Fold:
Amino acid sequence: MAAVDAFRADADWARALDAADPLHAFRDEFLIPPHGDGAQTYLVGNSLGLQPRGVRQALLDELDDWARLGVEGHLHARHPWLPYHREVRAALAEVVGADPIEVVAMNSLTANLHLLMASFYRPTAERHAILIERHAFPSDRDLAASQIRFHGHDPAEALIELDADEPNGTLSVAAIERTLAEHGRRTTLVLLPGVQYLTGQVFDLAEITRLAHAQGCVVGFDCAHAAGNVDLHLHDSDCDFAAWCSYKYLNSGPGAVAGAFVHARHAHAKLPRFEGWWGRNAATRFEMRPEFDPAPGAEGWQLSNPPILALAPLRVSLEIFQRAGMQRLREKSVHLTGYLAWLIETQLPDTLEILTPREPDRRGAQLSLRVRAGRAAGQSLFDYMTAHGVLGDWREPDVMRIAPAPLYNSYADCLRYAEAARAWRARHA
Ligand SMILES: *Cc1c(COP(=O)(O)O)cnc(C)c1O
Structure:
């Protein structure tokens, strides 16, 4: 692939790069929303990934199997429903860098984090604080604060919020280390993102885990913006638990079934948990015994039999990830987002400021942008882009997020973003 200094703001050049991209054919496996006679320039897969073409047939197959087989579909559907969550397990593990026993597809993201915290947030009178970041996604703050209150403590005292210490609102490892040195002994859980939703910063999971474990803290990661985006190594990071949603980079549809990770060292520990029959050992589940015998690994946190219609899109999507390969996707992503950053820095330096870290290993697909002329101008640009079929998203107070997804976005998409922003600037200068 071309080096950074070989980038060019030229449509023929972008088209040639797309033609030479070994992953370019995957774009045709997705339904890109129309705009006028063409397609949108869809740069918002960080919020809702696009629909793989195969999803419709997979759903129709399940509906047919239900119609044809009724209850016997549990064993005789094309993809039998009883062990359905196992159909996605290996591929899901691969995407997040885990062993199959460490992952399960279930519920939604926030629900999974609560279930995992029931096991991994075990506060005592002396030690009950949770460390999050000041600008955590609201749901993450809500779940940490409510868990603290649920256990009879006060978030005003027990919720420690890390302040960003870098100019664009990003957090250094040194800041995390300082806060842990100061508050580690009263902190029992560290809950941080894999990729920060607002700034797009990638966190060093292994290093954070090492620092937090050294203080005796349990470590969990919210990988909503990391799963399917960056090359995760959840097992090697040594964190205790993690969860993510599947509707962002994992393209599994609105409200898709989420994922959960429990490190293998806890696979056979009889940790306290909120129990349900699907978390029982599959071998004895149907013996209907009174005592709960947990399935080993992450599956032991399941409550209910899985929602087949909601899992079918995840199965289709993960099959695409398996063919593309997370490592190849990440390589393309680094280059593609590098091109978009280069375009913004060279074509629009007086208009847009990039908040996301510059170093490729500190960012994923997403770039967070601020319009230099202020919030009103930012909204004007955002509205103009949307009207012209160039989709990003807006996060209050003044951040525009754009994320070229390597499975379906192209170099031409990046160039169209820059050209549309320049057209807006020409009208508003
Ligand atoms: C997208 C996202 C969520 C959404 O939570 P749901 O339970 O899926 O609605 C939560 N946390 C973070 C960090 C997110 O990026």
About this structure: The chain has two domains: 4-31+325-427, 60-322. The two ends are 36 Å apart (CA to CA). The longest helix spans residues 326-347. Residues 108-110, 137, 139-140, 193, 197, 222, 224-225, 245 surround pyridoxal-5'-phosphate (CB under 6 Å).
